[in-house]
Predict the 3D structure of the following.
Amino acid sequence: MRKRNSPTARTRALGLALAALAATAAAQEPPPGTEIYLAEVEGDRLGDAQRLTERPGYDNQPHFQPDGDAFWFTRIESGQADIYAMDLVTRSEKQVTETPLSEYSPTPSPNGGIAVVRVEADGAQRLWEFEIDGSNERLLFPELEPVGYFDWIDGNRVAAFLLGDTFTLQVATPGQPARVVADDIGRTIRRLPDGTVAYLDKARTPFRIVSFSTEDDTHRTLAEMPGEGEDFAVGPDGRLWAGVDGRILVHGSEGWVEAADFSGAGILGITRMAVSPNGSRLLFVAAE
């Protein structure tokens, strides 16, 4: 792993961390308003954008359910964050979690439930798991805190974004101390089809999307990030997807190519994305 950041960089990172903790969950301070869109994947191109949510406020962090016909997302109303689900066939939505606490970052868990980042009553941010109907909550990795974002490596281990004097990528295994494997990272963490973990290395510009292998502790650069965003998605074929303002790009053997330009339709500020398990659909978030 790289040497620790300079004092100036550490001061900047600590200031960001404290601001995030004071505001909301793990660097997840909501933007003024966001909506979720769907587009069909047609090779290296995307079909028309279909708006799925249409309300003032924060609808964000979409993640496909395993069957690809529905997805979970985070909704904030009156300062309260809960997990919702939308059926892509009927376009109907339902609330999944309804607790006095806030839940973010819904992600399928290996045993068939939903894993989330929960902001607890004392401000702690840890991983919790629910059944898909929002019942039977339980705490995962009690010592892993404060968590902002995460993805599963396999049926037991997670890779997580942790706040601190610098933002770190840590690998956690049940019953063992978490291990720091990278620092100065961005908020996106995605498992790759080969079992490695992709994360955003922000130690230099342009930012780089890097894979980390837990088998031999090696880091490998996959691509330079287009633009200055922190959000990318990974398809089941290993292709990378990223947004730059109103455009979405896909990275394959030819490097980054434009898959769609939605700016003409007034869709701007594209951020978080998710690719369906079979690679045929892409969810993305844009400014309200």
Notes: The chain has a mean pLDDT of 91. The chain is about 5% helix and 50% strand.
